[in-house]
Write a structure and sequence with these properties.
Domain Phosphatidic acid phosphatase type 2/haloperoxidase: 141-246
Signal peptide: 1-21
Number of domains: 1
Protein name: Phosphatase PAP2 family protein
Radius of gyration: 19 Å
Number of helices: 10
Helix content: 55-70%
Largest sheet: 2 strands, antiparallel
Oligomer: single chain
Organism: Flaviramulus multivorans
Strand content: under 5%
Structural class: mainly alpha
Keywords: Signal
């Protein structure tokens, strides 16, 4: 228990230090430093609610490009699913060779408990110190994870995909099943871990800082594969979902001028590609 608590504090301290280490110059914004803590909290709550509403309303405004992207993701996922059983067998077979610390880290990083405590700490520090960068990051994380979390929770029951290791192949589904053994798609650990990592990485301009944050965020998804808790497509689709939601809400906050963006918005261009024997998610800095 002490080890788990120590690990949790280390995780929180790591992200708080990383965000505070980002030296972005602050300028005057619509919410001044003279605002009270209550006023700032109320403002952040309003931005979170607006962001969630924006994210869920986006499909009604999609154009041809957006539907083409959706089609590419679906076709790519179907292609990736052809190796789900073999990939799962490979990861599970090699699980004994994975360091216990890696598996423990993966379980903690993607757990709801660590997510809520970590983000509460980030937001608390940002709120009481009136650090707009921390507040903005927390609002992005909260609204993104709430959006992707609702989609993920609904999808688990709706699709009812079997988890690995239950005597079924990856193509076995029990639609609208309430049984945990049929709640594999998508991965909740991946959604929380990638959402937080992507939201935090967007606050850095340095490529290596981004790589470090993304690497940490990838621990949970990979560990779930080794643990035999999810199929490869569960992880892949969850990753795409998290990235799309975070980017959509971040763009909304930027255009709405909800917070101070001292520099021109800089995003990673993500492309889900598949051809021949290659399938992957490519990010261009």
């Amino acid at each position: 228990m002490k080890a788990k608590i120590s690990f949790l504090y280390f995780f929180i301290a790591l992200f708080v230090c990383n965000l505070n280490a980002q030296q972005l110059e602050t300028s005057s914004t619509k919410i001044k430093d003279t605002s009270s803590i209550g006023e700032l909290a109320l403002y952040d709550l309003k931005q979170s609610v607006k962001s969630v509403g924006h994210a869920f309303s986006r499909p009604f405004f999609w154009d041809t490009k957006d539907f083409t992207t959706l089609g590419t993701v679906i076709v790519g996922s179907l292609a990736l699913s052809t190796i789900d059983d073999e990939a799962s067998a490979f990861f599970v077979r090699n699980e004994p060779h994975v360091p216990e610390l890696f598996q423990e880290a993966g379980t903690r990083f993607g757990s709801p408990q660590v997510y809520f405590i970590t983000n509460a700490t980030l937001y608390g520090v940002g709120l009481f110190t009136k650090n707009e960068n921390l507040r903005k990051t927390s609002v992005l994380i909260i609204s993104s994870s709430f959006t992707s979390g609702l989609i993920q929770s609904f999808s688990k029951t709706a699709f009812g995909r079997v988890r690995p290791g239950n005597g079924y192949k990856s193509t076995e589904f029990r639609f609208w099943s309430g049984k945990p053994a049929f709640h594999s798609f998508p991965s909740g650990h991946t959604v929380l871990s990638v959402t937080m990592a992507h939201a935090i990485a967007k606050q850095f301009d340095n490529t290596w800082s981004k790589v470090a944050v993304y690497s940490l965020g990838a621990v949970a998804p990979i560990s779930r594969l080794f643990a035999g808790a999810h199929w490869l497509t569960d992880i892949g689709v969850s990753t795409v979902l998290s990235i799309v939601v975070v980017d959509s809400i971040d763009k909304f906050l930027f255009k709405d001028k909800a917070y101070n963006y001292p520099k021109k918005e800089k995003q990673i261009s993500w492309n889900f590609t598949f051809s021949g024997n290659r399938i992957g998610l490519i990010g261009r800095f």
